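SEVERITY: medium
COMPONENT: batch folding queue
REPORTER: lab tech (J.R.)

DESCRIPTION
The queue accepted two submissions in a row. Attaching both inputs and their returned structure tokens so the on-call engineer can compare them side by side.

ATTACHMENT 1
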Amino acid sequence: MPLDYQSLTFAYRSSSDQRNATPVRHPVVIVGAGPVGLTCAIDLARQGIRVIVLDDDDTLSTGSRAICFAKRTLEIWDRLDCGDRMVDKGVSWNVGKVHFRDDLVYRFDLLDEPGHRRPAFINLQQYYVEGFLFETAAAEQDIELRWKNRVVALEQDATHATLTVETPDGPYRLACDYVIACDGSRSPMRDMLGLKSKGHSFRDRFLIADVKMTPEASARFAAERWFWFDPPFHRGQSVLLHQQPDDVWRIDFQLGWDADPVVEREPGRVAARVRALLAQDDGADAEFTFEWMSVYTFSCQRMERFRHGRVLFAGDAAHGVSPFGARGANSGVQDADNLAWKMRLVLQGRAPDRLLDSYDEERVAAADENILNSTRSTDFITPKSEISKTFRDAVLELARDHPFARKLVNSGRLSVPSTLASSSLNTLDRDAFEGALVPGATCVDAPVTVDGQPAWLLDQLREDFTLLCFGNSSLEDLRDAIVPLRFVVVLPAGAVSSTAATTLVHDREGRVATRYDAAPGTAYLIRPDQHVCARWRSWDADDVRAALARATCND
């Protein structure tokens, strides 16, 4: 019998720290047990770093909240061995449809070629995501989850941070090398440091309704992203529809700035809106109930910096965007992915503390990219002048017949991994390459064969830095690398290896060589978070050593 994650309550338990007069020093304390905090905790624990996770609550998230999780996020969770559960439960989709007034304008496919392990997106209620991550974290011996532990004060100096934590048994103090603040958009940790997020709010209101339908009613709609501009059932506004597991559907209705949030949440009023939508597909008589409703406004904003001494901010605590494009939770998981390996190397003494400054550098740039895309989406969806609305409507009319205009339509630029092209950790190309896998880009998956069995490339690029070599290579001179270095050699299907590689893979469909624009002698140096940091057409051990030193701030 599956767990009911919405009713699950976690027991408060006292910890040994509460019985010590002098604060015990821990490597890492994570504040917040949401998707970002739990992902970061699992990643650190898998790398041998002990983590304390503090949460002021004793339940998982209420309502569906974040529901769209991107291919890159799934690949991160695959690396942490919890991706299968997410995909098996979630609703996978690649196709979106854009409607204007009474007509379908066009459809798009976010993953229009074969040879990928994961879909472009899954839809999955946040409480399932948190539940699966919690169960993964609870099985890790190096993670201690402490519920009903609310941080009320923070002090730090050059060597460590000290937290004051309030519990049902009273307060205690906890010391650590680093704090990772994943405590949400209203972040008390941010307030404790006297910090603010800056940006702007949008003068519009939206209604989220999570509607549970009967299986028969649910079958009327495909597992796709449906977006309507000015539809007949909601004139002058926009509507977004997504399928979730358990025959639950997420519907976002634009309401306008003058809408009364209290009135718009009335069940009868929401039901009328839902029935009007369903009537477009002869579903006006469909039975449904409400799972969750909320009226919201939103902002695009971020902290000026994500690192403040011994405290690093991630997820909604560091940055926030509108929901169009599913860039919020996905970006937060990528924050965790970026930070964990750097913190591990610093704590192990394999990299200097300034490596953590690159977290701020890279993820601030990624946040700016997300904010830019989110702002543009919102401006297109909710034009603020007659001129803007005229332009938008003209673009939508043209998009019916002209593919060039479809590039201008913006119903939410959907989440993609940030390419950290300007990162100080990259080694610049000296050779010519085709394609998008520049230093700073995330690696692309492809089908391979390992030990005669079908496998996936990204599963071979885990935990440590990896030298991905195409063709037989001499690797002996790199056994003493400055940080642990794995060797993965890629050969054409059926080729025989003469290399003592950590992992030998065969490119069973030729997609690895194509996607990496690789020829014999090509090599990619790949970070533990599966970002490219250097590549060469031909290379030697000194090239790799220099790139490793740069990527770990040991230069």
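ATTACHMENT 2
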Amino acid sequence: MKVALAQFNPTVGALAANADRMAAMARDAAARGADIVAFPELAICGYPPRDLLEKPSFVEGCAREVERLADLTQDLPLALIVGTVAPNVQTAGKHLANAAQVLAGGKIIFEQRKMLLPTYDVFDETRYFVPGERQSIWEYRGTKIALTICEDAWNDKQFWDRPLYTRDPVAELAAAGAEFLISINGSPYHLGKRAQRREMFTALAERHRMPVYYVNQAGGNDQLVFDGSSFALLPDGTELASALSFGEDLILPGDHHANLNDETEAVYDALVLGTRDYIGKCGFKKVLIGLSGGIDSSITAAVAVDAVGAENVIGVSMPGPYSSDHSLTDAREMAHSLGIRYEVSPITEVCGVFEQVLEPLFLGYKRDVTEENLQARLRGVTLMALSNKFGAMVLTTGNKSELAVGYCTLYGDMCGGLAVISDVPKTLVYELSRVANRRHPGAIPENVFTKPPSAELRPDQKDSDSLPEYDVLDAILKGYVEECKSPAAIAEELALPLPLVRDIANKVDRNEYKRQQAAPGLKVTTKAFGIGRRFPIAQRFSE
């Protein structure tokens, strides 16, 4: 049995376009002699469709496109495994199921419904779907096949210390006589995810002594980036085939693409793919970036160039009353090296006008962060005006470390359509910038790496005036945000003063109101600020 894995990049809701692309990939698979071609989870509609599933017309459109795909491929000598939604005909429960339908000869010849519905992190499948009541072996051309959908293969009780579910669908299908496993997935990327998948599915193959075929979605949909990285394994865990990471691919046994590259390189690729797809799928072509001459705006510009091309990137420097000379020279040098359009729009004069207008209202008050934030907000106004005029999306440049503790200005540097590095800790920003300079030799000036980070909103300001050194801050944030550890546990583990850790934790908690007004950001760590982290804004709990 020759199985092709069609690592596909769907656009959510582009039902006809998705079906057409799947038909083309199925034809390619047939031409290469495949007996089966497997597409990712919910490929017909794109994953995750979220509340589009509440629209009857959307669900009807999915069914219609599956039928049309069956017609388009009825002459092919293979079966298509298609991820889609299916109606729940029972009188109780949700109206839909997450399904894998098998098409051959112009008909649906088999269907398997997802048994295990995840509700953690970014997943909320019980909001929409009813779990499958049973599963069956799919017999095709004399072979017994276990067909599962994503989470169904992620509950191996021998692999996880604490499985989430009581059932193990793969073990049940193996016990029923399955000869090999095909798993269709919509599995988002985060640091370490690709290696984790390989380890888990290798354990599955070895435990059940069966070949394993794993196909995953590739592409960016809103805040999630899907890396693809599909693979096939022999019963002893040996690699039979492997697909690209962060791009579409069609692989059959014997096809091998290096996809477990350095993880920092992988994060860079994830940001490029997520940025490209977010911009393109939202209908934009050009982007705007405020260039401060700092490391954050520099890496954002490099990612943007790789995502949409230098000709579609506009960098704008907006020097203010406290901007250093190197802010302009470093930004200009980088823009020239990357080949992007570069503009300068000073804010000093208009900042003075605003302060003059507000002076009567500020009478009796000392200068404080109000005047600092005014500068950031004038930069936001400038960028949004240019965005309207040029039809370009603004990319914000704040990193995860800043966003975590509120070291950012609402309606200022937080203005924009996509927060490219909002899930990238500051220490990782520097590592990614070295990746950018390998791909664009010398594009980010060395001075950007060595000068102290500063918002330059008051004389001689440095980030370290308000925050611990970033290696310390990032270690605390990883424990508190990503691992949900208490300040006391973090302080003990890192040998840090407890008051320092508590202060950072309090900053994280107090600034939830800012983050929930931020532009959507691309998820690359195990816990990002966004749809996978659901904390109340008005709350008084503290540790």
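NOTES FROM REPORTER
The mean pLDDT is 93.
No errors were logged for either attachment.
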